[in-house]
């Protein structure tokens, strides 16, 4: 474990919100070489920025200093020039009450924005208009609307499906209930491939999107790379975005990728303070014996992903970062900084 230089620590603290912004929008937009990116927000909560990092886990905690951080629960909609609509993750949905209980910091007078309403009111789309749902992983705040898209193919990494439906996984029943019916209907697509590859999601219908295995938060967690290019930009490099899922939850993890939240599965084994006496049983046998999987797997995945985002001059899109939930990353010799995008 390394200690952060003081100036970086101060910069993290300065990024925290002293209070929630006066307003937050249900939708922020970006465009990328002919592709429309719409970052939808279902809910926002003030949280203690030390949540969910345990004080024993990092030398620089606590961060809060009387401030609060804002945590979004979001979904990203990617609209391709061909008319194909791809959701990246399926949000919180009815699980919102659980999130509220967990956070302990509901934002009063700002009710959650339901996905179907946002689609209808802001974009004139219905749930039937979603063609693909690509899941970064199977945690409850990313699968809430699964089952609501009658025409969508759902895409997951095979390692994630294996983990989520393994007998020891704490959310096994939820994953089985949500995904087994889709499997029976032939609407579940499982991806294979390792972390150095861009794994095609559908080469015919959405060739602009590829999955990048980014394990640590969960064993089969993926980021999604989006590459846009128009005919007029032929001589230019493509415009790129990465949807990071839960590879990071807060922008201060860009500044300090070693901050490991309690719910990164890779860290469970080394955290005796977790209220799980049988952590060992939640691991797939294959993972227990896999030396590549250890407590800091998510930190390594974060660094690798951040390096790539910075090197490709890509837009970072997050379901949990404060509004607008997207921005850019700079890499100064392995020291990363995050600049939130201006809200349109
Ligand atoms: Zn999440």
TrEMBL record:
SMART domains: Lactamase_B. Keywords: Hydrolase, Metal-binding, Zinc. Residues 71-287 form the Metallo-beta-lactamase domain. Pfam families: Lactamase_B. GO terms for molecular function: hydrolase activity; metal ion binding. InterPro entries: MBL_superfamily_lactonases, Metallo-B-lactamas, RibonucZ/Hydroxyglut_hydro. This is N-acyl homoserine lactonase AttM. It comes from Seminavis robusta.
């Amino acid at each position: 474990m390394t200690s952060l230089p003081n100036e970086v620590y101060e910069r993290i603290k300065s990024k925290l919100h002293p209070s929630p912004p006066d307003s937050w929008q249900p939708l922020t937009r970006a465009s990328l070489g002919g592709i429309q990116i719409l970052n939808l927000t279902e809910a926002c909560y003030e949280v203690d920025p030390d949540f969910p990092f345990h004080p024993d886990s990092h030398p620089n905690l606590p961060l809060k200093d009387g401030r609060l951080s804002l945590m979004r629960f979001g979904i990203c909609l990617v609209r391709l020039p061909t008319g194909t609509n791809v959701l990246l993750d399926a949000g919180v949905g009815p699980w919102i009450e659980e999130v509220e209980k967990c956070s302990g910091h509901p934002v009063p007078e700002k009710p959650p924005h339901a996905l179907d309403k946002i689609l209808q009111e802001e974009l004139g789309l219905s749930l039937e208009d979603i063609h693909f749902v690509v899941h970064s992983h199977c945690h409850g705040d990313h699968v809430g609307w699964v089952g609501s898209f009658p025409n969508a193919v759902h895409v997951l990494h095979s390692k994630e499906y294996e983990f989520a439906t393994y007998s020891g996984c704490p959310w096994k029943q939820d994953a089985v209930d949500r995904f087994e019916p889709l499997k029976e209907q032939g609407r579940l697509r499982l991806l294979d491939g390792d972390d150095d590859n861009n794994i095609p999601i559908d080469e015919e219908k959405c060739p602009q999107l590829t999955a990048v295995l980014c394990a640590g938060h969960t064993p089969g967690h993926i980021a999604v790379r989006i590459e846009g290019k128009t005919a007029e930009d032929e001589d230019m490099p493509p415009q790129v975005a990465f949807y990071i899922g839960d590879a990071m939850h807060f922008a201060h993890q860009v500044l300090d990728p070693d901050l490991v939240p309690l719910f990164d599965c890779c860290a469970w084994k080394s955290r005796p303070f977790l209220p799980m006496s049988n952590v060992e049983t939640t691991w797939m046998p294959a993972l227990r014996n896999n030396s590549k999987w250890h407590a800091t797997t998510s930190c390594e995945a974060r660094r690798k992903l951040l390096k790539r985002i910075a090197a490709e001059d890509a837009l970072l899109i997050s379901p949990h970062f404060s509004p607008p939930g997207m921005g850019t990353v700079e890499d100064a010799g392995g020291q990363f900084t995050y600049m939130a995008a201006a809200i349109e």
